[in-house]
C-alpha cells in the first residue's frame, strides 16, 4: 500500500504542475478562455488574466500606474474634443468635395467653350457667311473687319484650350 500512496502522490503532483501552466484570457467576444496553450498574438496583454509566471488577475487589487512611456502632460482626449475633431474632419471633407465638384464644373464649361471656339474657327476658315443679331433683334452679316476680329478672339480662346 505504501507504494500505491507514493505513486498516487506523484501523479497528483504531476497533474498539479500542469494546472499551474494554464492560460486564462478574455477573447474578442468577451468570453473567458482557458487553455494550456498561449493566447493568439492579437490578444493584448491587458486581457491575459493568467499565464505562467504572471499572477492571477485580482479585480480588487489597486490599479497600476500608467506606463512611463506616456508623457505626464498628455491625457486622453475627452468626448467633446473627439467630437470636435470629427466635425472638423467632416467639414474639411465636405469642403474638399465642393471644391472638386466646382473644379469638375469649370473643366466641363471650359471644354464646352473650347469646342464652340473650334467650331467658330472652322466656320471662319471655311468662309461661311456669318451673321449676328443687334440689340433690336435684327440680323446683320459680318464684314471682313468683323470676321478678322472674331478670328483673333477665337484664336485667343483656342490658345488657352491647348
UniProtKB/TrEMBL annotation:
<dbReference type="Pfam" id="PF13511">
    <property type="entry name" value="DUF4124"/>
</dbReference>
<keyword id="KW-0732">Signal</keyword>
<feature type="signal peptide">
    <location>
        <begin position="1"/>
        <end position="21"/>
    </location>
</feature>
<dbReference type="InterPro" id="IPR025392">
    <property type="entry name" value="DUF4124"/>
</dbReference>
<feature type="domain" description="DUF4124">
    <location>
        <begin position="10"/>
        <end position="56"/>
    </location>
</feature>
<feature type="region of interest" description="Disordered">
    <location>
        <begin position="32"/>
        <end position="162"/>
    </location>
</feature>
<feature type="compositionally biased region" description="Low complexity">
    <location>
        <begin position="59"/>
        <end position="80"/>
    </location>
</feature>
<protein>
    <submittedName>
        <fullName>DUF4124 domain-containing protein</fullName>
    </submittedName>
</protein>
<feature type="compositionally biased region" description="Basic and acidic residues">
    <location>
        <begin position="135"/>
        <end position="152"/>
    </location>
</feature>
Amino acid at each position: 500500500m505504501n507504494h500505491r500512496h507514493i505513486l498516487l502522490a506523484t501523479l497528483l503532483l504531476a497533474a498539479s504542475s500542469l494546472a499551474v501552466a494554464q492560460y486564462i484570457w478574455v477573447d474578442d467576444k468577451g468570453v473567458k478562455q482557458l487553455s494550456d496553450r498561449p493566447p493568439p498574438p492579437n490578444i493584448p496583454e491587458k486581457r491575459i488574466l493568467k499565464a505562467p509566471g504572471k499572477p492571477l488577475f485580482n479585480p480588487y487589487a489597486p490599479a497600476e500606474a500608467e506606463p512611463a512611456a506616456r508623457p505626464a502632460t498628455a491625457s486622453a482626449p475627452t468626448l467633446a474634443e473627439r467630437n470636435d475633431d470629427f466635425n472638423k474632419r467632416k467639414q474639411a471633407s465636405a469642403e474638399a468635395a465642393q471644391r472638386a465638384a466646382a473644379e469638375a464644373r469649370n473643366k466641363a464649361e471650359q471644354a464646352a467653350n473650347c469646342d464652340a471656339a473650334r467650331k467658330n474657327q472652322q466656320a471662319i476658315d471655311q468662309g461661311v457667311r456669318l451673321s449676328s443679331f443687334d440689340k433690336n433683334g435684327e440680323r446683320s452679316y459680318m464684314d471682313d473687319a468683323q470676321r478678322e476680329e472674331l478670328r483673333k478672339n477665337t484664336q485667343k480662346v483656342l490658345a488657352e484650350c491647348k
